[in-house]
Input
Amino acid sequence: MLQHFYSQVVIRVVIILALMAGMLFLIRANSFSLAIFLAIGLASSVYQLIRYVNHTNRELANFFSAIKYDDYTLNSYSGRRGKTFEVLQGTLNLISKKFRDIRAEKEANHQFLQTLIQHVEVGLLCVKEDGEVILMNEALKNLLHKSYLIHIEGLQKISPRLWEKVNALKPGDPELIKVNIQNKLLQLSIQAVDIKLQDVSFRLYTFQNIQNELEAKELDAWQKLIRILTHEIMNSVAPISSLSSTIKDMLEQNSLSQEEKLEHIQSSIAVIQKRSEGLLDFTETYRTLTRIPPPKFQRLDLIQLVDEVITLMKSDLQKFQIELQKDLPEAPLLFDGDPHLLEQVLINLLKNAIDAVQEIEGPIIKVTAATTPAGKVSLEIADNGPGISEEMLDQVFVPFFTTKDTGSGIGLSLSRQIIRMHKGQIEMQSAEGEGTLVKVIL
Output
């Protein structure tokens, strides 16, 4: 193609030079009329040369102009350009087709995502930095009974309390809120995440009504709690009732002397008193779960907090010859929390780990602290004890449930409440014969 292009240019240049030479010759021969004719031919040849050379530039200019305005329907037709540009024009047509295919695929993906967003059961709301709403899916429209929102401040008209929570919501920090919309009580779980695309910032909110799930979990929790309360109360009431009946029968009998009756009555009353005191202690323990003081937040260093608790438990660790392994960073892990409440949590968790390994050979407890990808702090306490079965693992956070012979069974329940008050998470992983790991995220 290049050789053909160059030969065409050379031929046209030679023609131009020949016309110039002929025109000069005719001017010297005073043949001005013929010279004018050759001048016209010369101008036409120069124009044709320029036009011929600019074919490529015009082709590229048209192509890029079409790209600029997202027009991928342009096809170059080499027949009207000459065979010189067939390869170039074919390449431009191929690129244009590729762009059309990419655009069609992009449009198909866009339609797929739009369909997915509209059919997902979680409410989605995406807004710009200035609060302008650019996306609101069908699930959210049905949840809020609102067909559209122009600005996020429109949530104020739906529910001032909902707007207050959404306005104060921080990315990665889920919130639970009860709101009344259209005379219907909703339990909403709200989360937010920041997105940046092409230097434009967006915030995506998710709204999920978990009313049914919470009611199911609440009912399950109440049933578990009632079973435990019934068990503990019956353990105390049954012997009291039995002893009372025995005393009544004894008083009605004439075969026993007064001294024998008095002796039996005194021993029975002592047992009744002991069981009654036990029931009172149990009731007081239950009240403890409902009277946790609100946390007094201050800036804390998790590493320092862990070291202080380990120092408190050092005598127990030495007593049972437990190897304590620490994997703590040198830099402070700072977060906001109540030092007294969290210290109580760490003591409970470490004490549980000590109880789990104190009777095994080669007991080990490992304490690990780190920062999560979301910027929070995490603490893991792992032991190589006997572990907990799957059935028991489901109940370890239920009040008064315990796998130990002694203990009130409220340590983990209390710990979970305190962690929830700090808007954190606590979870346990365990398997029989493989040890237990408790993870706290704050």
The CA atoms of residues 25 and 164 lie 94 Å apart.
